[in-house]
Amino acid sequence: MDIKGILKPLTAWKRAFQPPHTIEVPNKRTREAAERYRGFHVNDIDKCIGCGTCAAICENEAIKMVKVKDPQKGDSGYRPRIDYGRCCWCALCVDVCPTGSLEMTNEYTWVRESADDFVFIPGVDKIGHEEKKDKGYKKHEKLNFLNLERVPMRELDGKERVKSFAEVVLGYMEEEARKEAERCIGCGLCISGCPARMHIPDYIRAIAEGDDVKSLNIIYENNPMPEMCGKVCTRRCEFECSLGHLGEPVAIRWLKRYVVEQFDDLKKFVKAEPQPLNGKKVGIVGAGPAGLTAAYYLRLKGYETEIFEAAPKAGGMTFLGIPKYRFPIPSLDKQVELIESVGVKIHYNSPVTPDKFEKMLKEYDAVFIATGLPKGMSMRIEGEDHPQVIYAIDFLRKVNLGEKVEIGKDVVVVGGGNVAIDAVRVAKRLGANSFIAYRRRVVDMPADEEEIEATEHEGIPIYTQIIPLRVEDGPDGKVKLIYGKAKMVQKEGERRPRPVLIEGEEYEYVVDRIIVAIGQQPELSYLPEEIKNKIEMNRRLIKVNERQMTSIEKVFAGGDLTNWTADAISAIADGMRAVKGIEMFLNGELSWEKK
Amino acid sequence: MKKFSKEDREVKLFVGPQHPGVTGNMSFEITLEGDILTSVKTHVGYLHRAFEKLMERRLFIQNFPLVCRICVPESDTNEENYARALEELAGIEIPERAKWIRTLVLELSRLQMFMRWIGGIAGTMGLGTAPQWSVGDRDYILDLFEELTGGRIYHIYILPGGVRRDLPEGFEERVLKVMDYLEKKLPDYDALIFENAVFKKRLKGIAKIDPSWVEEIGVTGPVARACGFPFDVRKEQPYEVYDKLDFEIITETGCDLYAMAMVRRREIELSIKLIRQIIDRMPKGDVWTHLPNVLYWKIPAGETYVKTEATRGEFGYYVVTDGSDKPRRVHVRGVSTPHAYTLLERLVPGMNISDFSVAIVGLQTCPPEIER
After folding, report:
1. Residue A132 pLDDT > 70
2. What is the pLDDT, as a whole number, of residue A26?
3. What is the CATH number of the domain that holds A191?
4. Which of A34, A487, B96, B282 is geometrically suited to a Cys-Cys bond with B147, CB 3.0 to 4.6 A?
5. Are B296 and A208 within 8 A, CB to CB?
6. What is the pLDDT of residue A28?
7. What does pLDDT average to over chain B?
8. Is A170 on the interface with B (CB under 8 A)?
9. Is the dihedral of CA A170, A172, A174, A175 positive or negative?
10. Please, which residues bridge with residue A80 across strands?
11. Is residue A321 within 8 Å of residue A403, measured between CB atoms?
12. Which chain B residue is nearest to residue A108, measuring alpha carbons?
C-alpha cells in the first residue's frame, strides 16, 4: 500500500489560499501587453508613401492598397487597408516597411458590432488605438528586412583626378551591380520622379537576375542615351526611392551605367527594328538629347528624320557642356552610332539660318526645334565686357571642342550651379588655382550635392555670400572682381533666405580670368523674323503645350529651350512627348486649330 | 447459455475527432471486447491544412507565419528548423548571440510544452488540480515569450539570419525569476502528480513498449528514452549551441507510460538547468545578419535535412530548393506520426479502454504535426 503516495497529494491544499494566476479582465483590471506586443496596426499616414511593400510581403493577402488621395511625386496616394479576418499578426509588414510608418500598438481588445469594421485603413479610419502609439511592435533600426546601405562606388582619388580629364567615377563591377540591384524592392515610386518615366524597377530586376541584355532593352524603350544618363543624370528617381527614407536610395543611375557599359557594340544587342518608311518627314534642329530622342523613336515608327546640328558632333550640351571626366567621348559616340544605325540622318556642322528654316517648314511635315540654352547670362555689372571675363558655357564648349584655352593662374568662377562646378573643376584640371564665389550659402547651391563634394575632394575652395559689384583692370595684366559681402535675410512667405548686400564694405579678387556661370539663355537667331515675333514665349523660353506644340503651326519644341528644369533627362522626356505629339499630328489626331 | 461468437462480443467505437480524451483533432476506430481493446485504427485528416504544399507557392520569408502553425504548441521548433534549413542552403552564417537566443527560445518552448503535458496527462486521468497549476505556470513562460517576441503562441521570431529582436532590457533576470519560481514549485508537482499513488498506478505497466520496436518504427524522444535508448538530437547532432552546454541524456528503463512520464519530469529540471547555463554563458553582439532582399530572395538549388529535438522527439525538415524564390518541396517529419499510428496500434491490444486516452497523451501525440 502506497500510503505516502495517497497522502502526499493532499499537501496541495496549502496552495488553496494563494491568489489566483488569472486577472479578471475587464471587470477588475486589465493587463497591459508587453512593450513589443504585436497588437493592432497603426499607420502614420503622412509618413507612408504607399509603396505597397507591406502588401507584397503579406502571405495572407490581408493587406490591399487602396487609393486615399491623389498621387504625388514619391507617393502613390495609396494606403494599406488591412483585413483582420485574414491578418495573422506576424508583423512582417512592419519589419519590411521602408519608411517605418506602419507599426503596431500593444492593444489587444477591440469590440465592434459590425464585422465590416475589422477591414480598415490604419491612420485613415480611426479605431481608437492611436493614442497607444508609443508602445507595441515597432520597426527596429537595424533588424529589418531592407538593405539600407548602398554598394559604394569606386572613384579616382581627388589628387589623381585633377591631373587629367580621366573619368572620375569608375563604375560598378558585375558583382557590385548585382548586389546593388538586389536591394530594390520594386515599389516603382522612382518612376514618379523620372521625367521620362523609365521602367526603372523592371530593368533593375533584370540586372539582379543577371540578364543584362533584357535590362538594356527595357532601358532603350524610352531612353536612347542611357549611358549619358547613367553617368550624368540628375537622377530625380533616386530622390523618390523608398529606401531613401531610412537609408540610402538604390543607385539607379550607376546601375543604368553598368548595364550600358557592358556592351561595346549596342547595335548587336538593342532590338531596334525601324518600321519601313511611311513617306512622312520630320526635320529637327539641334542634335541634343531632345532632338536625338525624337529622331530615334520617330524613325523607329517609320518617319524619316533628319537632324541639323551646328557642332561637329551630336550630343548637344552633353557633348559641348559636360566635361569629359564626367562623360567621355567614346560613351557618347557609342549611343549616337546606334541612333544613326536605325536610319536617323544627322547633318553635322550645319547651323540653321532663317532662310533654311523657312525651307524646312516647307519641306518637312513637321519640325522639332531643340536648340537648348547656348548663351551665358550676364551679371549685369559695370566692366563685365572686360576681355578677361568669360562665360562658363563658352569656356566649356571650347575645352570640349579641343581648342586651346588660356586661362592663366588664378580663376574665379561666379555661380553655384552644376555649370559653375563643371567650370571650376575644368579650370583646376587646366592647371589653374580655381575657386567658386557664390552669393548664397553652400546649402542653397543648386548644384548636385555630389558635385559640391567633388570640389572638396579636389581641393577647390567655395566662398559664399559674395555679391559681385564691378570688374576693373588689375595689376600685371590681371583683372579685379570687386565684391561685397551678403547677409542672409529670411522674409516671411519665402522658401529660402535671400542674400542682401552689406553696404559700405568692398573687397576684391585679383585673378587672371573671371568665369561667369549664373545661368544660360536660348539663341533663336535662326528663326525667321516673322516667326520670332509671332512665337509665344514663356519669359526667355519657348512656350509649349503638353504635346510640345509651339504657337507656330507644324513647329514642335523641346529640351532646355522649353523646359525650366534644364537637365538631360527632362529633354529626353520632351523628346518622347514630341514623338507622341508629332505622330498624332501627322495622323490627323492633333491640329493647331483645335489646340 | 448461448455462447456468443467473437464477432458478436466485439463492439466497434469511434473515438474523436472531437473528444476530450484525444489531443487535437484525430479519430480512432477502436474495437472493444468488454472493457478491453482488441485493436485500433488511427484516422487523421481532420486537421489537414496542406502546409507543405502551400509553402511551395510562397516566398521563403512568407512561410514563417505558416511553419509556426505546423505544431501549434511548439512553434519555435518549426521556425528554427526551417530557418536553419534555409541558412544551410543559402550559405548564411548567423551571429553567435543569435544562436544562443535561439537555444534559449527552444528550451523555454520545451519547458512550456512540458507544463502543458502535465495538464494533459493529469486531466485525462481525472486529476483536476494539476492542469490548473501547470497551465497557470505555463503562462508565466508565455509572458516571457510575449515580451521577447511580441506573441504568446505564434512567435515568428526565429528567421533566417538570426532572430528578429534582441533580448529586452532586463529580460535575463525575469527569465531567471520564472525559473526560480518553477524550480521551487517542482516538489509540489511531485507531491501532487509524480508521486501520487493514482498517477503511478494508472501509468505503471501500461503501454509497455518492446524495445526492439524503437528502431523498427522510428520511435524517438522521451518515448525512446523511456526504453533506455539514449537518443537525443541535442547530444547526437548538436545544433545551435547545444554543443557548448553541459548536460547528460536522461533515460529510464521501464518502457511504460510511467517511465515516459519520469523522463519528462526529469527533463523539466534539465531544461531549467540549460536555460540557466544559456543565460550565464550568452555572449554579447549582433543578433541579425542582413538577408538579401527578402521579396526577391532566391536560394541556389539544393536539398537538406535538418532536425531538432522537440519535446516529443526528433522533429525534422527536409527542404528542397531549385534556385527560385520559393521552396520546391518541404517535407516535415512530425514526431508523432509513428507514435500515433504504428506504435499505438501495437500497444492497444489488451489495453483497458480507460487507459486509452492516457496512452494517447502519454505518447504525446500531436495531430497538427501529423498532418502538414
Report:
1. no
2. 66
3. 1.10.1060.10
4. A34
5. yes
6. 66
7. 90
8. no
9. positive
10. A65
11. no
12. B151
